[in-house]
Amino acid sequence: MKKLGGVVFDMDGVVIDSEITHYTAICEAMGEGATASFDHFLEHCTGRDEVYAMTRMAELSGMSFEDSDMAQWSVRKGKAYARLVAEQATSIPGAIELVLSVAK
């Protein structure tokens, strides 16, 4: 069998289970007005970038916002996400073993 020259992983949802972490960080960043449920977040906000996710979250929560709000939310979301990942990230079953096996 041919030896691999390299492997690229998309961390979110492939190596770590991150959707709840993104949701929690967005809710923290947007404040009390972000009231959409996690299920609604999964259905309507995921699969694209954070601006899309926060825009949809605001719409689902009935929040009005300006471009400056989005910029502030983005900074706060980044900080919250980094903290939350450090505190509670969990790997997808088998992901660590896969990464270790391709590292050999």
Rounded to the nearest angstrom, the radius of gyration is: 16 Å
Strand content: under 5%
The CATH topology of the domain at 19-88 is given as DNA polymerase, domain 1
Number of strands: 0
The N- and C-terminal alpha carbons lie at a distance of 14 Å
Query: CATH class of the domain at 19-88, anyone?
Result: Mainly Alpha
Identify the notable features of this structure and list them briefly.
single chain; DNA polymerase, domain 1; 104 residues; 60% helix; elongated; mainly alpha
Description:
With 104 residues, the protein is mainly α. The protein has a domain at 19-88: DNA polymerase, domain 1 (Orthogonal Bundle). It has 5 helices and no strands. The chain has helices spanning 19-30, 38-44, 50-61, 67-88, 95-103. It is elongated, with a radius of gyration of 16 Å. The mean pLDDT is 91.
List the helices and strands and how they pair.
Layout: H1 19-30, H2 38-44, H3 50-61, H4 67-88, H5 95-103
Helix pairs in contact: 1-4
Question: Quick summary of this structure?
Answer:
It contains five helices and no strands. It has helices spanning 19-30, 38-44, 50-61, 67-88, 95-103. The longest helix is centred in the C-terminal third of the chain and has 22 residues, at 67-88.
